[in-house]
Amino acid sequence: MSVLSLIKSIWKVINLIREIFLNIIFLIIIILIFSVTTLIKEAQNQETIPQKGALVLNIEGVIVDNTQYSDDIYALQNKIYGKSVNIARENSLFVLTQKIAQATNDPNINSIILKLDNFAGTDMSSLQYIGKYLTKFSDAKKPIYAIGSNFNQSQYYLASYADKIYLTPQGAVNVYGLSASNLYYNTLLNNLKINTHVFRVGTYKSAVEPFIRDSMSDEAKNNTTRWLTLTWNNYLKDISSQRKRAATQLVPTPDVMLSELKSVNGSMSQYALSNGLIDVIASNYQFELELTHKNEISIYDYQLKKQQDDNSDNEKSDKPLIAVVFVNGTLAEGENSSNVAGSQDIVNQLRKIRKNLNVEAVVLRVNSPGGSVEASEAIRNELEALRQNHIPVIVSMGGMAASGGYWISTESDYIVASPNTITGSIGIFGIVPTFEKSLSHIGVYSDGVATSPLSKSNLAQDLPDEMNQLIQINIENGYNTFISLVAKARNMTTEQVDEIGQGQVWLGVEANKIGLVDKLGDFDDAIDIAATLAHLTDYKIDWQKPEPNWFNAFYSDIVAMAPKSTAEILFEQLPEAKQLQQQVSLWDKFHDKQNRFVYCLNCADIR
């Protein structure tokens, strides 16, 4: 046998093994898809718990405007791994409030029980919105009870709407105040010899501070202190109203609290009882005995009626539609993903809406700290096209609509913000890291020739002075564009906008006073205004979803079903961990071709 024949024979064997291996992998994928599909159908078709008794809000994880994964996936996860607590779970704000609204008028639901130990929290605007629906439930003469072992501030805010709050004997109510802090990397970057080139406009544009400082600037501190104090005062006002006690009694100063805590021998539960934070100290067993006559239905088992939850026939419906489009997360080019609002998906939704003759109005639900200028402008352009086609656009601001979130909001007929919406941050910046010092430290250098100083820029060399000037001029142009968009939208002069711009962050109640929003309200108010502007009395809400990418959806679902360790889940919930992810995304996920970003990084996380 010749050498050539031997090589051919070996190649045939290798090729056969490769084909067998690929076929096995393909077969496994087919079996997995079939199994997952079967389990989902089984979960959907299984008999539900009888829909009669007390509705239990045993919320796991966080509450967001628009969830990345469907409830079917979480149900499947429980089926595969067994029922276990998932504090990384995302819950839809609007599905939750729809269920509470349905329960209010449902004669089979006699009460609500708030079991919130596994609720990781949400923004203040969402808490107030849920509170509105709990109030309506209470106004229908249906009692609300809350039981917990350790109430955090988000949990306690919802618990304050209960007629009776129970706390376990070794439990505590951890209501102390709000804080906002950041991680700073200037020394780290210097130690790594990374040269960070920063370009910005706005005295208060503090998004880049983590890369150029080791502490928060006085301007950023003053700005943050103002809106954070307002948020805390609103929190205290709400719980004081619900508990019918003075805020100073519920949350006294630290010295008074410590004195009162010593008087009850350090018992946090007795302290909470004495100060009116709770009504009863009781174990879970004692609580169950007191409410033994009530059959409990988990919020996850309580089913929405078909007409409320099913929008599959919207395009065939004779009723006019109000389309709801979500802008949830950091604005970047591409597709939606966890904590990222992909301009490509959102633009496609808006174009589809524009071609749908049944759509009479659009409510843009914005909950974003901003992001890429290019992504923001792409969305704003599509909103402009909607309005040119006589489709009114109403912006409903959630917990945050800042920087790029406000940029896209300028192209609207009306802006509704919560009193606690974090908004404004009208400013712009650019950031370009170069690694010439890092590389030279290990003996690597870059050299060559170029026909122009502007053409030789690369990350292995310092930026030429001409490139520095070019980027700064472009950033200044972007800021002028931003304030011009705001001035036109809000009927102001650019000088007036510049005065309230410069990267300053405003709370919704302040933004309303200075003219950045039209009305203080919530999502329901935005829907009502949309109906009024479109002259509608009978309509359906069309909750928009991005066109599914089969592979991405399948991969995301697998990720959602994968179990996580407690340490991993807790780390993901830390504000510092979120900040780190967001700050890294400045260099990783943002692909603005001109390195221009309208982003409010420092106003993203409160605890």
Q: Could you give a short description of this structure?
A:
This protein has 607 residues and is an alpha/beta fold. It has 24 helices and 23 strands.
N→C terminal distance: 76 Å
Rg from Cα: 27 Å
Secondary-structure arrangement, i.e. CATH architecture of the largest domain: Alpha-Beta Complex
Fraction in helix: 40-55%
Whole-number tally of structural domains = 2
- Quaternary state of this entry equals single chain
Please give the CATH class of the largest domain.
Alpha Beta
Biggest sheet record: 8 strands, mixed
Structural class: alpha/beta
Supply the CATH superfamily name of the largest domain. Answer: 2-enoyl-CoA Hydratase, Chain A, domain 1
Question: What do we call the CATH topology of the largest domain?
Answer: 2-enoyl-CoA Hydratase, Chain A, domain 1
Instruction: Tell me the number of strands.
Output: 23
Average residue-wise pLDDT: 84
Strand content: 15-25%
Put simply, the count of helices is: 24
Low-confidence stretches: none
Shape, per Cα inertia axes: globular
